[in-house]
Amino acid sequence: MNVSAWCIRNPIPALMLFVMLTLTGALAFRSMKVQQFPDIDLPTINITASLPGAAPAQLETEVARKIENAAAALTGVKNIYTKVQDGAAVVTVEFRLEKPTQEALDDTRAAVSRIRADLPADLREPVVTKLDLAGTPILTYTVASERPERMDDEALSWFVDHEVTKKLLAVRGVGAVNRVGGVDRQVQVLLDPARLQSLRANAADVSRQLRQVEIEGAAGRTDLGSGEQPVRVLAAVKSVDELRALQLMLPDGRRIRLDEVATVRDTVAEPRAAALLNGKPVVGFEVARSRGSSEGEV
After folding, report:
1. How far is CA 221 from CA 226, 231, 236, in A?
2. DSSP H helical ranges for the chain
3. CB of 67 within 8 A of CB of 115?
4. Which of 118, 58, 70, 60 is nearest to 90 (CA)?
5. Which one of 110, 121, 131, 186 has the minimum C-beta count within 10 Å?
6. Is the per-residue pLDDT at 188 higher than 90?
7. Angle 101-114/65-72 helices, nearest 10 degrees?
8. Do residues 291 and 173 lie in contact, with contact meaning Cβ atoms separated by under 8 Å?
9. What pLDDT shows up at residue 25?
């Protein structure tokens, strides 16, 4: 069949088809999403293992190498990359493209679960996630506070974490909001070694009792009248003054206040990251889109 000859003899259907294809293309172009990276699934899995206070050499031999050996035995593994730093090790397992991403994720999780007993007992549960190209930041902002009621870095960090983040996560298409720079609030308990030694106590006893103070959970049910009432264990302190007045039990049965053997301060944690704008420290936050959303609309 000669298509050109048929279109010349029947121009109306050919024109209608041309107009329909033009309109369809225009509508598809207007609805096309603007993205820096396409939403594709790459069979690349990240394994993050955290052990606060551990040196890189310890993480390399006791954590990273064992995870690498477990991942190397999986089917379809192409490359394995490892990054070790103070307190954390990140192992990236790259599979071949023909490997389904969900299958690669399940196989990696199973491999890590099999060696969990061989890893250090105080190691935090390893986090296994797949590579998400949509999680890269698309916008970065910095916040500042002007006089006369100037907010310090702690107040600005709290404002970003609890005010700005809640508002932005309610916007359609926003997948995550991450603070950059700033500080975190921290209550420090600085023990007096000489005072502990004189009382025949040690830091482990104090640490164990402090952990019990922060326990809050369910404690079963109890009969109340004709019904049942759930019971909760509330052991959290509400202020630093309550923590200073906390009663500690010594090995010999005596009780002392926490502030008798330690200095309790309401301060900020040591900064582990910093954000600079024109050479000056600032508090900022990054906005990432969710999968399937347009960067322009977000």
Report:
1. 13, 5, 20
2. 3-9, 11-30, 56-59, 65-72, 101-114, 153-159, 165-169, 193-198, 203-213, 240-244
3. yes
4. 60
5. 121
6. no
7. 130
8. no
9. 92
DSSP-based three-state secondary structure for 124: coil
User: Do the Cβ atoms of 273 and 180 come closer than 8 Å?
Assistant: yes
pTM over 0.85: no
Q: Give yes or no for a contact between 206 and 245, defined as CB atoms under 8 angstroms apart.
A: no
Residue 286 · residue 178 · CB < 8 Å: yes
Is the confidence at residue 26, as pLDDT, over 80? yes
pLDDT at 39 exceeding the cut of 80: no
Q: In the block, which residue shows the tokens 């926490």? A: 258
CA distance 54 to 250: 30
The b-or-e profile of 126-162 (16+ CB within 10 A means b, else e) is bebeebbebeeebeeebbeeeeeeeeebbebbebbee
Indicate whether 171 pLDDT > 80.
yes
pLDDT at residue 114 in the model: 93
Cα angle for residues 260, 244, 232 (degrees, 5° grid)? 130
Cβ pair 269, 122 in contact under 8 A = no
- At 46-68, the pLDDT tens digits run 999 999 888 899 999 999 999 99
Reading the block at residue 251, the tokens are 């090995």
| CA distance linking residue 163 with residue 53, whole number of Å | 32
